[in-house]
Amino acid sequence: MPSKPVIGVLALQGDFAAHGRALERAGAQPREVRTAADLTPLDGLIIPGGESTSMLKLIDLEHLFQPLREFGSQRPIFGTCAGAILMAKEVLHPEQASLGLMDLTVERNAYGRQIDSRIASIPVAGESEPVEAVFIRAPIIRRTGGEVRILATYQDDPVLVSEGLHMAATFHPELTPDARIHTHFVNTVRKRYTEGVPVEPRQEHQTE
């Protein structure tokens, strides 16, 4: 694995460019992902925020649903806001399809309409200083499975969680200059390889 892991950002909808900039600050090499072939050279992937039903339609249109599930069975994925909804095993309000990569039940738009968006300062496990969390029509994690680790809460609800390879956040870490949440994911990707866990071979890439 190179010193800078290559981490894709699903670039179908949402502020994927901001995630790319955050990944660069966190010491990774970002790549925009729009097709199944784009997944091949990646060490990890971010599924950004947006509108989850629209994102599902675009994923289906690009025939990405099964490739994303297969990728997630081998390599780390970090879902933020709508991405967290897509990572969950169960989605409510209303029910919808998801990748089912994390043992979570997530309720869509649970804080209310766009006007109810907010910014909060939240403690995060392993961080000495709180993190600024931007919530925009955010979902709420209503249930976590036994293997899910809760890294941060807001109003007593989990807002940052991890399970195995994966992470999910109900807020937008890319909308602040603080790259600590992205750094946590980049370190998860690095750990996946440095611990010698077998993964499918990936094609090497050229640095641009």
Structure description:
- By secondary structure, this protein is an alpha/beta fold.
- The protein has one domain: Rossmann fold, CATH 3.40.50.
- It contains five helices and twelve strands.
- The chain has helices spanning 16-25, 52-61, 65-72, 82-87, 180-194, and strands at residues 6-10, 29-33, 44-47, 77-80, 88-92, 102-107, 118-122, 131-135, 140-144, 149-154, 157-163, 166-169.
- A seven-stranded mixed beta sheet has the order 2-1-3-4-12-11-10.
- The model is unreliable at 198-208 (pLDDT under 50).
Indicate the topology.
Blueprint: E1 6-10, H1 16-25, E2 29-33, E3 44-47, H2 52-61, H3 65-72, E4 77-80, H4 82-87, E5 88-92, E6 102-107, E7 118-122, E8 131-135, E9 140-144, E10 149-154, E11 157-163, E12 166-169, H5 180-194
Parallel strand pairs: 1-2, 1-3, 3-4, 4-12, 5-6
Antiparallel strand pairs: 6-9, 7-8, 10-11, 11-12
